[in-house]
Amino acid sequence: MSRKRVFLSVLVLPLALMACGKRDGERDLDTLDNELVDAGTGAPNSSDPAMTSALHDQIMVDPSLAQQSNANTVRPPAQPYSGGVPPVTIAQTAGGAAGTQGSAVSQRAKQAPAPTTKDCPNCKAARDSLTLGALAANQTDKRTSACAGSMRYSAAWADRVPGDVPLYPGARVVEAAGADTAACHLRAVSFATNASLKTVIDWYYTRVTNAGFSADHQSDGAEHTLGGTRQRDGGAYVLFLTSRRDGGTDVDMVANNGR
Q1: Distances in Å between the alpha carbon of 35 and those of 24, 25, 45?
Q2: CA distance linking residue 255 with residue 246, whole number of Å
Q3: Alpha helix (H) ranges present in the chain?
Q4: Pairing with 220, which of 69, 80, 212, 226 sits 20 to 30 Å away (CA)?
Q5: Residue 38, Ramachandran bin (φ over 0: left; ψ between -120 and 50: alpha; else beta)
Q6: Each residue of 190-212: pLDDT tens digit?
Q7: Contact partners, residue 8, CB within 8 Å, separation at least 6
Q8: DSSP letter at 116?
Q9: What is the DSSP string of 80-110?
Q10: Does the reported pTM lie above 0.85?
């Protein structure tokens, strides 16, 4: 019996040692764990720069946006989302600052006559109108007011205003609407420019009178209007202009015979 035990011991012991021994190129788990720990602590010759930077660098936070990531919270954010509008000087086209260039051809500038102040029905219409459609509906020109109900809103209408009553150079479009039916080719555009009110009025006065339109300049003090008609094709336009505090001008334009 003792010989059998000795024989089994001699046979089993080498097998056990073979099972516990390391194979060539094989590392134990403790070594791998130590390397990962060293990588996180920045130990020399063993850390990954990218991992070390990710674990230890300061997190960058934009304070102005920190309160805007509350879309899924029950409590509303501490401040409203930013809805800032870029200044009108952004993307200003050539000729916009001087106000002397037309959409295609330069014209010799004329001085618009001083406004009449006894009565300004268009000024009242502008104050009473909350939308471009309402502004068109309140016009005295029957063709313009009759087409107001067919107007639809899209910025694309700003590119289809009449060639004789174009947008001011460098204008920044805020809103646009229009109608295209068999009887209506109405266009209405709200835009802003950094040019002064007088510069804008003189520029439009030059263009519309050269194109054969009449031009009636009215004002109630705060609001200026320039409007007129053309007999040969029934064309009509009206501009509503107000000065801004920064020296620029806000303009609402309504015109028929659009492109």
Answers
A1: 19, 16, 10
A2: 27
A3: 2-20, 29-41, 49-56, 121-128, 132-137, 142-147, 197-210
A4: 212
A5: alpha
A6: 999 999 999 999 999 999 999 99
A7: none
A8: B
A9: PPP-PPPPTTTTPPTTTTTT---SSS-----
A10: no
